[in-house]
Amino acid sequence: MSWGKAGGQAKKGHYGKPMTPIRLLLVDDDPLVRAGLSFMMGGADDLEIVGEAADGSEVEALVDRTRPDVVLMDIRMPTVDGLAATERLRIRKDAPQIIVLTTFHADDQVLRALRAGAAGFVLKDTPPAEILDAVRRVAAGDPVLSPTVTRQLMAHAAGTSADTRRTSARTRVATLNDREREVAVAVGQGRSNAEIATELFMSIATVKTHVSRILAKLDLNNRVQIALLTYDAGLLEEDGH
Fold it and tell me: Which residues carry the post-translational modification 4-aspartylphosphate, per the record (predicted)?
C-alpha cells in the first residue's frame, strides 16, 4: 500500500455544512496499515482520529469510549472480523457510520457488511484523497458507492441471492406507496438526490423526505441497504436495469 500525505486544508462548509472535526476510529489488524491511515488522515484539519483497534473484538469498547462519527473497518481480522463487528455496532442506538476496508470490489463478506448497515466500502489501494473523501461523504450522510460499483455489487449478488431473499424483499417493499417505490428504485440505480429530483419532478427536500420514510418503513440504516433490497426484490430488473 502506498500512502502519501493527503487532504491538507479542508474547506469550510464542506458538503454544505459548517465543519466540525469528524471523529474517526481506525480498525485494522495490520499496524503498518493503521500507521499509514493515521499519517494520511493527519493532514486533514476537519478530521480527528480518536482511536485505533487491531481487531473487531476491541471495537465496541472503543466506540463507547471515543464516540466516533465514522469507523474505517478492515473486513478481515483474526479474532472478530469486520463483518461481525459491523453487525454488532449497527444494531446499537446512535451507531457510528462504518466504511469497510477491503482488497476486493465485491465478495460475500462485503455484501454481508453492506446488508448489515455499512455505509459503503473502499479498497485498500484506493488513493488517499479518495479515502478522505469517502470519510467526509459518509459523515455527511452520503453513500460511498458509485453507480459503477453498485452495478458490480448487484452482479455479484445475483449469484448469491436465494429465492427466500426475493420473497422476503418483495414483502417488505410492498409496504411502500407508489412514489416511495419510485424513489427506492432510483436509489437502487445509484442516483443522487438531485438526479432523483430531476427525474421524478420533485424538490430535493421532498426526495430526502421520501428516502427517510423508506428507511423508516423498511427498518434500514442507509441508502446502500435500500439499493440492495430493491435488487433483491427484483425492482431493478422490472425497471430494465
Answer: 74
